[in-house]
Design a protein that fits this description.
alpha/beta, OB fold (Dihydrolipoamide Acetyltransferase, E2P), Rossmann fold, 4 domains, 5-stranded mixed beta barrel, 5-stranded parallel sheet, 14 strands, elongated
């Protein structure tokens, strides 16, 4: 038979190191052997153990070595669990329709929580493991325990009450709700509506850590984050102190490097500016040379214009003397008058251009003149022995005699010390 479905009481249930599970199904009048091979574990619905009534789905074959019929199970379901899972799906759909599982409700976890709350059983290894991991990762964190019954009758109400106590008095920034692994029935309290709504009402981010990685409950869906195990929840909730210290050290090194580069840039710019103010003579000489060249060029152009006008006038006079017609003379006189007027305007322009350029250069020279800087409140410190200007406090030592030049004169000073 390729497909059979058999209900019976479990006996001689054994899990072998190979991962295969062997057991017998019996009722008042008959018994048959069954096997569930490794890899089919996920199709076990409920906590299967001796004495329970289960429904096995699979195929019927013959175990040839003993000549016995045997069921090769594809799934094993504890009797009554099917109705329980059906009720779970209905509850999940109803709460999802209310928006309790929406991704938009998920909140980010605090990066460095000062206090965390834990809702779990006071007994067992789960609490010890979470506290150990929390202390090793972030020793400064405060831990507030709200103990609760995590399975059995009344567990859901106890978990909801523990959460409410943390909300009212815990003063925590993050809450972990969890327990160790178990069967569907063992974890059922975390599927109850009272627990789901209590987690949804949390004023701070929550982490659900129920069972093992393969276990899923409605608490996992409503929490801000689902951790595969309680230990993983503690690791996720808190930063690692060594990694944090390395990050802080790296940021401090980058900040010092940036500060050093900025200081060097400012020093370089100040040295350039100080050099320009302290000794403007090369720039002044260059500007004087350019001004002299421009003045010579303007003077030469003016001489050429006057010479051309004079030659033109002489030529016209010669033509008049040769022809002497009165109309021609009148016309040429008018032309000469126009030329003379143009020449006068050109000469005026040529004369004004050197004055204008001279004014521009004088303005530039004034901007570079050290005395102009001094008139704005600055001073130049010079070593008395050499007359050299000081460009950095490193060039001065206590006891050095200096001359301080200000806008209206010079006075002496002695270095007493240095300040930052």
């Amino acid at each position: 038979f390729r497909s059979v479905r058999v209900e019976g009481e479990v006996s001689n249930y054994k899990l072998y190191p190979s991962g295969h599970r062997y057991f017998s199904l019996k009722d008042e009048g008959a018994q048959i052997r069954a096997v569930l091979f490794r890899g089919r574990d996920r199709f076990i619905y409920g906590d299967v153990r001796d004495g329970q009534t289960v429904v096995v789905s699979g195929s019927l074959g013959v175990y040839e070595k003993k000549g016995e019929y045997q069921i090769y199970a594809q799934s094993v379901e504890v009797r009554g669990l099917g109705n329980l899972l059906l009720e779970l799906e209905k509850r999940k759909a109803r709460l999802a329709a209310e928006g309790l599982f929406d991704p938009d409700r998920k909140r980010p976890l605090p990066a460095f929580p000062a206090r965390i709350g834990i809702v779990t059983s006071r007994q067992g290894a789960v609490l010890r493991d979470m506290v150990r991991v929390a202390r090793s990762r972030w020793p400064a964190v405060g831990i507030v325990l709200a103990p609760a019954q995590v399975q059995g009758e009344g567990a859901a109400e106890d978990i909801a009450a523990a959460l409410a106590a943390l909300y009212g008095h815990g003063n925590v920034e993050l809450i972990i709700v969890g327990r160790g692994g178990g069967s569907v029935e063992d974890l059922w309290a975390f599927n109850e509506e009272a627990v789901v709504r209590a987690i949804a009402a949390s004023p701070v981010p929550t982490i659900s850590a129920v069972g093992h990685e393969t276990d899923f409950t409605l608490a996992d869906l409503v929490a801000d984050l689902r951790a595969p195990t309680p230990t993983a929840a503690a690791q996720t909730a808190l930063p690692d102190r060594m990694e944090t210290a390395e990050r802080v050290t790296g940021l401090a090194l980058r900040a010092r490097r940036a500060e050093r580069n900025l200081r060097e840039t400012l020093r370089r710019e100040l040295r350039i500016a100080a050099g320009a103010i302290a000794d403007p003579r090369p720039l002044v000489r260059a500007r004087r040379y350019e001004l002299a060249k421009e003045t010579d060029a303007l003077a030469a152009g003016m001489q050429r214009l006057l010479r051309a006008g004079r030659e033109r006038l002489l030529g016209l006079t010669h033509e008049v003397r040769l022809g002497s017609p009165s109309a021609w003379v009148s016309r040429k006189r008018a032309e000469v008058a126009v030329l003379l007027e143009r020449a006068g305007r050109r000469i005026s322009t040529v004369r004004e251009e050197p004055r204008r350029r001279l004014g521009v250069y004088q303005g530039k020279l004034s901007a570079l003149d050290p005395t102009a800087v001094l008139s704005r409140g600055y001073a130049i410190a010079m070593r008395r022995s050499t007359g050299a200007a000081l460009r950095s406090k490193a060039e001065a030592a206590p006891g050095d005699q200096l001359d301080i030049r200000v806008s209206d004169g010079v006075f002496g000073a002695v270095v007493e010390g240095k300040t930052n």
